[in-house]
Design goal:
The protein is an all-alpha fold. It has three domains: 96 residues, Winged helix-like DNA-binding domain superfamily/Winged helix DNA-binding domain (Arc Repressor Mutant, subunit A), CATH 1.10.10.10; 137 residues, no CATH class; 88 residues, no CATH class. It contains 19 helices and two strands. Strands 1-2 form a two-stranded antiparallel ribbon. Strand 1 and strand 2 form a beta hairpin. 33% of the residues are buried. It holds the Pfam family RQC. This is Helix-turn-helix domain-containing protein.
């Protein structure tokens, strides 16, 4: 129950301070500043964006099963909390949930995955003089990447395939036999079509979400090993130039950042961008989360920060309204949000 285990872990960590929708937004990788903050504040960033295609009805179905099995219970204001049975499951299975790196690889995992799988399909077919096959992806950028690689290495097809085989064999040996086997079954190669998620679900007697997330864990592992070890030149090819595209800030926040770097005041940024104060504040909070040199004390002084920090530590809560009720009335929600970012740096 990998997927349900992740849900149990998330609900334990948010401590009824967020709704069930917040966890759905986390899993699909919603770019809203609230979701990004939740990921960091509640230490669930490893799950951010790990299941971008998750449908709401499937998510709610999994929650319903957890409620039925008494791993979760519904509390005040329809917020879910973990039961003793859920806590016991986490104690026994915590390691089972390791291996995800959602926030780290949010924008890289999908192109890396498609590059790798299309490469295997292309080179195993062309090495057998089979040039007519239906690509596993219709993503133009991925196809162009593999075409460029093919032009460069088509005369060394066997050599590069052997190198990749060696790298995958070594990398997969660090996983469980079950994880490695499912990954291999998913691969499409010469006259061998990769199993669909439905087929994997039947073959391994697991839910479709569990199969999907097991495969995701494997791709996170492959991304991680090629970063940490120079003995994976082929895997490094598939990750090439993906880091540059992994811009943590939204496009609109980047525009505000450029104005901020040019020393424009808050009011000037509002006027130039023709945006409301709340929107610029959202941008500044987003920037603060990702920029180490953010000037926090341009927007709140040390006394305000210490007051907010004391309330957070006393209440052990990140709920904005709860914090606001216990600090000086002049302290704004914007200052509280910035203080929370600084507190979690």
């Amino acid at each position: 129950m990998l997927f349900q285990g992740i849900l149990i872990d998330c609900f334990q960590k948010i401590k009824q301070e967020r709704t069930s929708s917040s966890i759905y937004n986390l899993l699909v990788g919603k770019k809203a500043i609230q979701t990004i903050q939740d990921a960091r504040f509640y230490h669930i960033a490893s799950y951010y964006g790990i299941y971008p295609d998750l449908k709401k009805e499937d998510y709610h179905q999994q929650l319903h099963q957890l409620l039925e099995k008494d791993y979760l219970q519904e509390g005040e204001k329809q917020k879910l909390h973990i039961t003793k049975k859920g806590e016991a499951w986490l104690v026994s299975n915590k390691e089972y949930l390791n291996g995800f790196a959602g926030s780290t690889y949010k924008n890289r995992i999908e192109p890396f995955k498609q590059r790798l799988l299309l490469f295997i399909q292309t080179f195993t077919n062309t090495s057998k003089n089979q040039f007519r096959f239906i690509p596993i992806t219709d993503n133009h950028e991925i196809e162009q990447f593999i075409k460029g690689f093919y032009k460069q290495y088509k005369h060394r097809s066997i050599e590069v395939l052997q190198q990749l085989y060696k790298e995958l064999e070594n990398a997969l040996s660090r996983l469980t036999d079950f994880e490695a086997s499912m990954f291999v079954d998913r691969i499409t190669s010469y006259y061998s079509y990769g199993s669909s998620l439905q087929q994997l679900s039947q073959d391994y007697q697991l839910s479709i979400p569990d199969c999907y997330l097991t495969l995701q864990k494997t791709f996170y592992h492959l991304l991680r090993v090629q970063e940490d070890d120079t003995n994976y030149p082929m895997l490094q090819v598939f990750a090439k130039n993906l880091r540059a595209a992994d811009t943590p800030l939204s496009q609109t926040a980047q525009f505000t950042l450029r104005l901020m770097q040019k020393q424009y005041s808050f009011e000037e940024m509002m006027r130039i961008r023709r945006l409301k104060a709340n929107t610029i504040q959202d941008h500044l909070v987003e920037i603060a989360m990702h920029k180490e040199d953010f000037p926090f004390f341009d927007y709140l002084n040390s006394a305000i920060y210490e007051e907010i920090k004391e309330v957070v530590q006393t209440k052990q809560s990140y709920r904005l309204k709860e914090i606001k009720n216990d600090v000086h009335p002049d302290i704004s929600y914007f200052q509280i949000r910035l203080a929370l970012v600084l507190y979690n740096k």
